[in-house]
Amino acid sequence: MKLLETVFEGTLWNSRFVVIAAVIGSLLAGFAIFYMASVDVVNLFMHALHYADSNLTDEARKALHDSTVTHIVEVVDGYLLATVMLIFSLGLYELFISDIDQAHGSRASSKILVISSLDDLKSRLAKVILMILIVTLFQEAINMKLTTPLDLVYLGASIALIALALYFSHAAEPNHEKMEGRNDEPRDETGHRDH
Questions:
Q1: Residue among 103, 124, 95 at smallest CA distance from 17
Q2: Number of Cβ within a 10 Å radius of residue 152
Q3: Where are the chain's structural domains?
């Protein structure tokens, strides 16, 4: 019975390696989105070169300007989505397979890529997804035609909700309290912090 339990528990524990499929898939999806966004940047640059053309009418120049800004927002959105896939891939690997030694040992390593729990992964993904939603709203706001005063109210309300979401996401950060504590350090008469 003990042997059966040992074999079963070993099989159960090693089943976590199935997550490698999600890690590799997420990584490849992130690379694909990085590639597409980079190609969009090249095409955008080639398209924007016509902006200085003296043969363009004012209307055509305005249309080119608006479409360029819209495409820039789409590129930012693509890079943010690729970042989500990268964070997801690295987070899954760290949680289920093994720590990434280079990430933990390097001073240049970004804190966002070091994941210690599922809640940590969820909070990091939520912040990036919030940024994607903000960029998407910005893109829609650029193309929005304000025809009635109610449209302006809706736009203002959406901006206020975004500000509120950013405030709450920033307030939930654990480093937020440490930074506030650092600002509350005693100061001398000249306003400098006492050390």
A1: 95
A2: 12
A3: 13-143
